[in-house]
Amino acid sequence: MTNSKLKLGRYSVGVGDRFAHQAKAQLQACVKALQEGAEVVPVWNKSNREHTIIGSEPVSTRLAADAAVKALHWELPYYLDADHITLETVGRFLAPCDFFTIDVADSIGHPAPAAEIESFVGRHPELVGSIELAGADEPFAITRETLRGTACKFLAAVKKAGEVYRNVESAKGAGNFISEVSMDETDRAQSPVELLIILAAIADEGIPVETIAPKFSGRFNKGVDYAGHGSQFEREMGLDVAAIAYAVKQYGLPADLKLSIHSGSDKFSIYPAIYRTMQRTGAGAHLKTAGTTWLEELIGLAEAGGEGLALAKEVYAEALAHREELCAPYANVIDIDPRKLPSAETVRGWSSAQYTSALRHVERDPGYNPSVRQLLHVGFKIAAKMGPRYLSLLEANEAVIARNVTENLFDRHIAPVFLGR
Questions:
Q1: Are residues 211 and 346 in the same domain?
Q2: Coil, strand, or helix at residue 222?
Q3: Helix (H/G/I), strand (E/B), else coil: 47
Q4: What is the rounded CA–CA span in Å between residue 329 and residue 229?
Q5: Contact (Cβ atoms closer than 8 angstroms) between residue 260 and residue 185
Q6: What is the DSSP string of 129-194?
Q7: pLDDT tens track for 85-112
Q8: For residue 328, what are the domain limits?
Q9: Could you give the number of structural domains in the chain?
């Protein structure tokens, strides 16, 4: 298989920028990482759903990223991710994007034709038996029934990924974009054995995938910490890395293929495990964060006081009033306790410090409220409806917002994952 000409590098971070105003502040975090010895490639990601809610086009994200790169004289690679695209939604992303996260979660569990499944099983006798993986404590034991069952569950999804990949390739040309296959937004975690079989199918499909996003065990809710067993996550990640290394050698997948960890942001408790695994194995990782930059905008506005604080309180009141509507699209990735949501009247009486304490993800702060944080995380639609009023306040308070954005991305994400602190 021919590897992609574009290279993502060992370390990369996916960052969301809902309103395309914080690209410079986000890139500043990567500049800081470089100054401290870690080259972390920025990848700006924004999904079709987010563009539709806000009423934006992918080219706006491209313009913001390009302007930030120019302003900060960034000379290393950077990318724009068509996030969670499908065959139906890829079209609007083809021109501005050079990274495509192909989401096939909806096709998982839909069996491919029986003849295709049997053909796949017949092509891969090497996957039956005991497979020794470098760095793994124990071999993978795969029966023919396991191989067939896994193909039955995932082969149609991989075929769908191939359709999307070839659609992009026909428009962009081979080697002119980064490919990721995403299977994280589904109901059950894939085992490392399943991942190995999936990678064999991806190779058969001719996709030069550079990142693969499996679903790990535990909960990866938007904007809050990991809920699960950290030791289990670390073991899974280590085995996934071993499976990837085996697949690269066995099937000719790109040499720099790495895990994409769709964290939903702020999985602080497992960041040390990610760092340890990368240091132990020499692997890289793509850490994909969610739209917490939008929360840093609200924090910055609340810190600024005056009109900014008033608007932040208004956003909360509207989000509370439309909670069910806002939460519905994200039901699988949020856990909000309605009993822990203060009333709009209570929040109207908050000081800047009370608002930022509730929203900023500092768990040792007694004011921190993860239910408030998750509600506001999905509440960006409220700000989008405010239009110029919201954007003008972002611009008027750029300095305080930018400081929060950079500190959040560098101190809470990049430093622990890629610098080990």
A1: no
A2: coil
A3: strand
A4: 26
A5: no
A6: EEE--TT-SS-EEE-HHHHHHHHHHHHHHHHHHHHHHHHHHHHH-TTSSEEEEE--SSSSPPPHHH
A7: 999 999 999 999 999 999 998 899 999 9
A8: 294-405
A9: 2
